[in-house]
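Researcher: Here's a chain I'd like modeled. Treat it as a single chain, no partners, no ligands.
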Amino acid sequence: MTEKNTKTVEKIAVKKKCGIIMPIASNPDYPNEHWKEVLLILSEAISQTEFEPRLVSDDVAIGLIHDRIVNNIYSDDIVVCDVSSKNPNVMFELGMRLAFDKPTIIIKDEKTGYSFDTGVIEHINYPSSLRFNQIVEFKLELIKRINATYEKSQSEPNYSPFLKSFGKTIVPAAINQTEIPESKFIISQLESLTNEMHLMRVNQNGRNENYTKRKYDIILNEKDRKDYINSSISKFIKINNHLKYEDFTSENFLPFLRDQITNDANFVPSSLEIKNSLNQYFARNNVDLK
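Model: Modeled as a single isolated chain. Structure tokens:
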């Protein structure tokens, strides 16, 4: 083998990995070949960086598929996760990656709302139609974000894309050989994801007539509308009590709260209604809003 060929082989061997977490199975809300096209788009964009794209389920070695997925989710240098359609398996795998607190980029289409646990993380949007001009812009943005995110993870000693939101007491999970150490944080995250998967299955299978009727009745008068917004805001704040008032009222977070209430109650609250509800909650709990 020539010296030139040897150098080429060495260069290929050390290329960093960019894992891809995304839906694979067909979905009635999307065309049959939709996810294959999305995977091709992601692979083309990632290949223009220093990373080699691969699904986290891919591996040249033969072994248990779950063991392979978990190890790739942990060891890949950076991961791009497509949460479009809120596929339960995708949300579960994303939860593991965030527990490891390693470089992660979340993307979604415009048809998909935000989720409670990941809403504080900036998402890159792409059109579900996969129209050429918009996809070109999306790929450029994704390339830029991959490079910037990985560079930041390498240059900052205390880099933390997710766990920093929970304070300094949370330590990222790690894998020792093929075992994942048990920790209260991972267990709580998995329980949360399990609950979310159950709710998504309920939504997909359809809700019973009485629940649907009650859901629509909520929006019939202003008082019920206000009470429902207050109740939703109160529950969300209690679940995410690590966040501050400024986080809840930020321009990035308000659309996320609006999506959650819309999905639950079938009406769209205004930003003013949400802000008023937040102000009332924090005022009742003696929190300085200045």
